[in-house]
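Do me a favour: review this protein, sequence plus structure tokens, and tell me how the chain folds. Record follows.
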Amino acid sequence: MPTFKQRWNIQSNAQLTVIIIVFALTGSASAWLSKPFCLWLGISKDALGFWFTPVRLLLIFPIYQVLLVLIGFLFGQFKFFWKFEKKMLRSMRLGFLLPKENED
């Protein structure tokens, strides 16, 4: 069974460390940004009650996707995260949003 580094074609432990940092920053940033985004859209716990958390989680998802590529770019790992995003979107049956191409 191939290791994570082999499966994702990660060249070094330093690159792996940067990738892990990007995932951590992206998760934290998307959760942090979801609050002002919800306020901007007028979504509040008072208005939605129980449904506030599921709606907020659904809002976090696209924020996370954009931030992952952006933060990955800032850390010099755009190629890795762009490939990761395309693979994730295709596996979620959202591949129709992306042009067909050969998988590496």
